[in-house]
């Protein structure tokens, strides 16, 4: 009974959020949906195109379909690689963060800094750093005899983009894990000492299980972040050489704003969005499910 | 709740530091030092270049400026367009942070305290916006803001960033609010507080940390996002990134200017981190550990 | 299995103490005898957990020596002492089953598999955990989790002592009783030295053979539950143990008589060692201060508490400013607010000087009547 009585008031609280987010989310989305089912001969004359754009997009034999599939696979590979590096590295860094004294604050401030650098500046930093004429990394690798050229060689471009993402985002995972580690009561460590557990065993049986929750959040954020990455790689490689580092967002922006291919871009957007939404939904149900299991 | 909690601080320090062997602290110190080095070498390189003349930059590699100069910075400081771009960036970030946290607060309270028809789908829908790729929105935002006359204003960017910052703020605040016992709400009601008075006088101070954390993240994500910020502006509301892209065009790359601008964009972030340094760890848990 | 000796063990956090107040634990000498059950009882922050952590090695004392038998273990790390400890909140390894949890301390010490299984089986049977052995520990109730923590403490047969740090804090009151009797049974079965930290006197008095009462970093009395109740050596013990605690009245003593608020009270012993008219405190438990219908001190009843099993009366010894105490009302006696008569049992009235009990010289038995 009282939940029902409260319901009206609760909706009132949500209204401001609804207005703001509806304006910035639903209205643009309607435009996209609109474009995705229509075609134009120019002059703002639109006609119904049904699922034509979607068929086009999802058929890998068409030019657009090929582009989409290529970008999607590249993007999935990129996400997989950065997650595989950043998650273990983030955990390792969090275990290295000092536990007490002034060094804690110092370490946290230093570690957090890359997170607050504008994405295009991150790109500039790594573009500068990896150039073979004036960049420390580029010059260093070349001097060491490694064939390295970001603008010509796909492997070099991928290497820089992955290292850049690791540089940019590992700190977030490290800070999340550090917060998770801080929440473990001392009694667990004391009990482990009394039980004669070694360092690895403490990590495996106490720290890692307690990090599960923050790691799920961190992995989701990193998956999403890497799956919609745009500015940083675009600044460094412009999607090249060729299509080598053209990820979904880079490809989409090129299509929508560069080529103004509205129908294809709209269908592209919707499918792209649907993929992120599905992942988000899986995460949401997984965490609520896990929470309920913990509460039980 | 007894003496063990009183003692936990010194105990924790002792057990953590002295745990398995005497060698471990130095191992972790080396680890953290290497990581910080990895983070700062590229940043140093940017700073290094920003203090060089363009001739110096292009004449070959040097680990520090051979002829240190502030000229790159001077060029930024004397140019009103650069000023304006910094002011624009700070303004839309500020507006976005305030709007996001303000509208998110009551919603987060509602999600935390009440069950109402459609609460779960609504929460999921909000979160899904957090996960929407900005690239998807670049084109429709362009159309929407052109149609509403908001295009090329700081409000366009501030509102566009609400797309992901409002859901983020709701999510963070919901976590912190759920950490405040519900009995406090009930006690206040019994003590005769009206709801608005309770919310402002009692509740807000209790979740001050959460508000700080939410504001920090809104600031962070609005400050670093560039795709929407540059797509939705041309002249009047041009952000720093827009100005920086100018250094690319013209006659080759103006590396010195670009590096100096890059260094300057790191300062607001560094200042914000410095202020929240004691809350970073808690903050990054987003109220959910 | 051996005695554990505290040889002048004291601890001050942060090194050198400048005064007594700097000690979290003031230097103490005590021998914990093997096979006995002890309780460390005291209010929060009295140093009992510090003492426990010194024994388990989580805290290295700044003063004194700790001996297990003849072996000096003062600076030995926890894992090299044969100690088991159960904490306030259940500590379980989330990802392991109950059986794996119980086996963990044995596995870490390299015990052979068949022996581990046998031992785990025994302990699980003792704690009624057998049906849960194959389940994941994470999903269990708080009391089951605490039983697992307990089991991990008991599973090693070579331990010198099992330490309990308020282990029943998070347990449902209804289950507390059951777990506590389980603990007693385990103690009898395993014949281990057990030290049990608590601030709950009922827990301490029902569990332990001997109770160490601590206050402000100091062990104020070590004794059996009966001793603590009948002859508190320190006013703190009198006040802390018993519910309600001992009545403490300011007064003066000369010989075998005490003066309190103008009344003269007979004592069970003479105190020639106290200077005549010395200012002291008289301690008497409410059980030995009874309202009577016959002779007695004239008092005023100001409040009556009905505890169901018994009636307690709060009485004032006189007019304004006079001291008051809690007295018991004999079964069947009607009592009302207002004037009444009070009888204090002289044999059970203790004299405290400077908060410590003063031993008197006994009188002839006839005097006490």
From TrEMBL, chain A:
Membrane topology, as annotated: Multi-pass membrane protein
Gene Ontology cellular-component annotations: plasma membrane
Localization per record: Cell membrane
UniProt keyword Transport present: yes
Keyword line: Membrane, Transmembrane, Transmembrane helix, Transport
Any one GO biological process: transmembrane transport
Transmembrane segments: 12-37, 76-97, 104-129, 157-181, 214-231, 265-284
Tagged with keyword Membrane: yes
Domain ABC transmembrane type-1 span(s) in chain numbering: 72-283
Membership in a protein family: Belongs to the binding-protein-dependent transport system permease family.
Protein name as annotated: Sugar ABC transporter permease
Organism: Lichenibacterium ramalinae
Automatic annotation (TrEMBL), chain B:
Chain ranges passing through the membrane: 28-47, 122-142, 154-177, 198-224, 255-276
UniProt keyword annotation of Transport present: yes
GO BP terms: transmembrane transport
Signal peptide: 1-18
UniProt-listed PROSITE patterns: ABC_TM1
Pfam families (alphabetical): BPD_transp_1
Record keyword Transit peptide present: no
Family stated for the protein in its record: Belongs to the binding-protein-dependent transport system permease family.
PANTHER family: ABC TRANSPORTER PERMEASE PROTEIN (PTHR32243:SF52), MALTOSE TRANSPORT SYSTEM PERMEASE-RELATED (PTHR32243)
Protein name: Carbohydrate ABC transporter permease
From TrEMBL, chain C:
One GO CC term, this protein: ATP-binding cassette (ABC) transporter complex, substrate-binding subunit-containing
Keyword Iron-sulfur: no
A molecular function (GO) term: ABC-type ferric iron transporter activity
Family: Belongs to the ABC transporter superfamily.
Swiss-Prot/TrEMBL keywords: ATP-binding, Cell membrane, Membrane, Nucleotide-binding, Transport
Pfam families xrefs: ABC_tran, OB_MalK
Organism (species): Lichenibacterium ramalinae
Localization in the cell: Cell inner membrane
Family annotation (InterPro entries): AAA+_ATPase, ABC_transporter-like_ATP-bd, ABC_transpr_FbpC, ABC_transpr_MalK/UgpC-like, Mo/tungstate-bd_C_term_dom, NA-bd_OB-fold, OB_MalK-like, P-loop_NTPase
Membrane topology note: Peripheral membrane protein
The name this protein goes by in its record: ABC transporter ATP-binding protein
Primary localisation category: membrane
Upper taxonomic lineage: Bacteria, Pseudomonadati, Pseudomonadota, Alphaproteobacteria, Hyphomicrobiales
SUPFAM superfamilies for the chain: MOP-like (SSF50331), P-loop containing nucleoside triphosphate hydrolases (SSF52540)
Ranges of residues in domain ABC transporter: 4-241
């Amino acid at each position: 009974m009282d939940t029902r009585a409260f319901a009206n008031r609760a909706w009132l609280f949500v209204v401001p959020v609804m207005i703001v987010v509806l304006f910035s989310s639903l209205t643009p989305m309607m435009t996209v949906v609109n474009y995705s089912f229509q075609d134009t001969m120019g002059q703002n004359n639109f006609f119904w195109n049904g699922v034509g754009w979607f068929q086009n997009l999802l058929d890998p034999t068409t030019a657009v379909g090929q582009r989409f599939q290529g970008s999607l696979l590249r993007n999935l590979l990129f996400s997989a690689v950065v997650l595989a590096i950043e998650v273990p590295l983030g955990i390792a860094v969090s275990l290295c963060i000092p536990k007490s004294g002034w060094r804690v604050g110092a370490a946290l401030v230093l570690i957090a800094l890359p997170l607050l650098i504008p994405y295009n500046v991150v790109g500039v930093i790594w573009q500068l750093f990896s150039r073979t004429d004036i960049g420390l990394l580029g010059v260093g690798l070349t001097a060491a005899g490694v064939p390295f050229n970001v603008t010509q060689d796909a492997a070099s471009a991928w290497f820089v983009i992955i290292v850049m993402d690791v540089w940019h985002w590992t700190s977030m995972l490290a800070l999340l894990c550090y917060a998770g580690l801080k929440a473990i009561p001392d009694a667990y460590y004391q009990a482990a000492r009394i039980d004669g557990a070694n360092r690895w065993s403490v990590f495996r049986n106490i720290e890692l299980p307690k990090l599960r929750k923050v790691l799920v959040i961190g992995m989701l954020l990193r998956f999403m972040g890497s799956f919609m990455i745009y500015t940083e790689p675009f600044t460094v490689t412009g999607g090249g050489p060729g299509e080598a580092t053209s990820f979904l967002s880079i490809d989409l922006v090129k299509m929508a704003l560069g080529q103004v291919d509205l129908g294809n871009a709209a269908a592209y957007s919707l499918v792209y969005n649907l993929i992120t939404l599905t992942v988000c939904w899986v995460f949401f149900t997984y965490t609520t499910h896990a929470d309920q299991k913990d509460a039980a | 709740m007894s003496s063990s909690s009183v003692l936990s601080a010194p105990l924790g320090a002792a057990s953590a530091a002295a745990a398995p062997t005497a060698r471990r602290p130095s191992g972790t110190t080396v680890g953290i030092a290497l990581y910080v080095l990895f983070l700062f070498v590229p940043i140093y390189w940017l700073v290094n270049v920003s203090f060089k003349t363009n001739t110096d930059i292009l004449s070959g590699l040097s680990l520090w400026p051979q002829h240190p100069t502030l000229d790159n910075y001077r060029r930024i400081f004397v140019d009103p367009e650069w000023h304006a771009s910094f002011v624009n960036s700070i303004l839309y970030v500020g507006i976005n942070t305030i709007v996001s946290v303000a509208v998110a607060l009551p919603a987060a309270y509602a999600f935390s305290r009440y069950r109402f028809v459609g609460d779960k789908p609504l929460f999921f829908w909000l979160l899904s916006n957090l996960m929407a790729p900005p690239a998807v929105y670049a084109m429709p935002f362009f159309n929407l803001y052109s149609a509403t006359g908001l295009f090329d204003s700081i409000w366009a960017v501030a509102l566009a960033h609400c797309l992901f910052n409002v859901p983020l703020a709701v999510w963070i605040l919901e976590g912190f609010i759920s950490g405040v016992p519900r009995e406090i709400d009930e006690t206040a009601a019994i003590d005769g507080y009206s709801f608005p008075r309770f919310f402002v006088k009692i509740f807000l101070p209790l979740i001050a940390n959460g508000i700080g954390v939410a504001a920090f993240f809104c600031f962070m994500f609005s400050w670093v996002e560039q795709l929407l910020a540059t797509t939705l502006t041309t002249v009047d509301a041009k952000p720093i990134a827009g100005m920086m892209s100018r250094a690319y065009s013209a006659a080759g790359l103006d590396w010195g200017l670009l590096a100096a601008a890059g260094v300057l964009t790191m300062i607001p972030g560094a200042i914000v981190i410095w202020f929240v340094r004691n809350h970073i760890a808690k903050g990054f848990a987003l109220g959910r550990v | 299995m051996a005695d554990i000796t505290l040889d002048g063990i004291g601890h001050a956090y942060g090194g050198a103490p400048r005064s007594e107040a700097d000690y979290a634990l003031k230097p103490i000498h005590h021998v914990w005898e093997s096979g006995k059950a002890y309780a460390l009882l005291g209010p929060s922050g009295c140093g009992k957990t510090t003492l426990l952590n010194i024994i388990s090695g989580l805290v290295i004392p700044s003063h004194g020596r700790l001996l297990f038998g003849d072996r000096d273990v003062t600076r030995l790390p926890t894992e090299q002492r044969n100690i088991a400890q159960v904490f306030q909140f259940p500590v379980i390894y989330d990802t392991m089953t109950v059986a794996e949890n119980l086996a963990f301390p044995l596995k870490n010490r390299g015990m052979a598999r068949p022996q581990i299984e046998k031992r785990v089986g025994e302990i699980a049977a003792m704690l009624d955990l057998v049906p849960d052995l194959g389940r994941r520990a994470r999903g269990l109730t708080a009391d089951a989790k605490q039983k697992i923590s307990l089991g991990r403490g008991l599973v090693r047969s070579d331990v010198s002592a099992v330490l309990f740090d308020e282990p029943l804090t998070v347990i449902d009151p209804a289950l507390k009783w059951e777990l506590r009797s389980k603990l007693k049974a385990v103690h009898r079965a395993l014949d281990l030295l057990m030290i049990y930290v608590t601030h709950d006197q009922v827990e301490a008095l029902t569990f332990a053979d001997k109770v160490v009462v601590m206050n402000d970093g100091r062990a104020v009395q070590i004794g059996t539950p009966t001793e603590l109740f009948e002859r508190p050596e320190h006013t703190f013990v009198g006040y802390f143990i018993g519910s309600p605690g001992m009545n403490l009245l300011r007064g003066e003593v000369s010989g075998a008589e005490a003066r309190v608020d103008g009344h003269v009270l007979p004592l069970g012993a003479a105190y020639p060692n106290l200077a005549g008219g010395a200012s002291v405190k008289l301690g008497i438990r409410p059980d030995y201060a009874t309202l009577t219908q016959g002779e007695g001190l004239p008092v005023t009843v100001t409040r009556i508490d009905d505890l169901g099993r018994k009636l307690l009366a709060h009485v004032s010894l006189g007019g304004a400013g006079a001291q008051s105490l809690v007295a018991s009302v004999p079964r069947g006696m009607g009592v009302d607010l207002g004037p009444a008569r009070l009888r204090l049992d002289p044999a059970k009235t203790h004299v405290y000087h400077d908060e410590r009990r003063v031993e008197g010289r006994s009188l002839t038995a006839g005097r006490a009547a």
